TrEMBL record:
Gene3D superfamilies named in the record: Winged helix-like DNA-binding domain superfamily/Winged helix DNA-binding domain
Source superkingdom: Bacteria
Role summary: Repressor of the lactose catabolism operon. Galactose-6-phosphate is the inducer.
GO molecular function: DNA-binding transcription factor activity
Protein name, entry field: Lactose phosphotransferase system repressor
Keyword terms, alphabetized: Repressor, Transcription, Transcription regulation
Keyword set includes Acyltransferase: no
HTH deoR-type domain span: 7-62
Length: 266
């Protein structure tokens, strides 16, 4: 269960993201913060009472004076789930080029974009000798449904309605492993801090995967370059490749190039 401070931090991040984008959806927020949709609805109700935003069907919108200054970003927050799914699938298809052949040790992080990649990976399974290690029960289920025989699920504490396994058990398991490539998600791509996520336990697992993989690939929809999140987990220099569905804004793109991080666009 989240602490009072963690709840307050999440609600501040939701308010900031809604103000920046002009609109946010319950489903997107639940995925971004690895919590249930019911938790997000309670957060939005609290924030509306505080005058930070206005609830609408399926999400929330910024107050008029905030939304006016962020009109150029409104379209990002209004994108349908179908559009997001297409973006994630396009990212997943591009990520396939980083899976070694004919065998590979693969880390797959928890998250909506990495789940989409797992679905693409499953479709491409033709008996390759893949060992998939994940902290996501959802990813593990996708792999097993494709009859991939060598799938390991990290132990630990489930956070965010079973979306991610974290904690000492997960870290301890990772410390005994090595991977050819790690595929990770991110909640934000920040010019000042690099890649960030919603909590320290989730960040710890991401850092350990990065440390123990020969190559690392961040899978991120482009709108996350407009987001902020609580905990940085990697600098641009620590990541080998970033894949997005469209070009990133100039500032983070320049930072990535300065760090010699490969940027791949479908």
């Amino acid at each position: 269960m989240a602490t009072v401070e963690e709840v307050a931090q999440r609600q501040r991040a939701i308010a900031e993201q809604t103000a920046q984008l002009g609109h946010t959806s319950v489903a997107q927020l639940a995925a971004a913060f690895s919590v249930t949709t019911e938790t997000i609805r309670r957060d939005l109700k609290t924030l509306e009472h505080q005058g930070a935003l206005r609830r609408v069907h399926g999400g929330a919108v910024a107050l008029e004076q905030q939304a006016a200054s962020n009109a150029q970003r409104l379209h990002a927050g209004m994108q349908s789930e179908a559009t997001h799914l297409r973006h994630r699938q396009a990212i997943g298809l591009q990520a396939m080029q980083f899976v070694p052949k004919p065998q590979a040790e693969i880390f797959i992080d928890a998250g909506a974009t990495t789940e989409a990649f797992a679905t693409v990976l499953a479709r491409h399974y033709l008996g390759q000798r893949w060992h998939v290690v994940t902290n996501s029960p959802v990813v593990a289920k996708i792999m097993c449904a494709a009859n991939i025989p060598d799938v390991s699920v990290l132990g630990g504490t489930l956070r965010g309605h079973g979306k991610a396994l974290t904690g000492k058990a997960a870290i301890s398991a990772l410390q005994r492993l090595r991977a050819d490539v790690a595929f990770l998600g991110t909640n934000a791509v920040e010019s000042e801090r690099g890649f960030a996520t919603s909590s320290e336990p989730i960040a710890e697992v991401k850092r350990e995967m990065l440390l123990r993989a020969r190559h690392s690939v961040i899978l991120s929809e482009s709108f996350k370059a407009h987001c902020k999140s609580e905990v940085p987990f990697a600098s641009f220099e620590e990541v080998g490749t970033v894949i997005s569905e469209r070009p990133l804004p100039a500032s983070p793109l320049r930072c990535l190039r300065d760090a010699n991080t490969q940027v791949v666009i479908p």
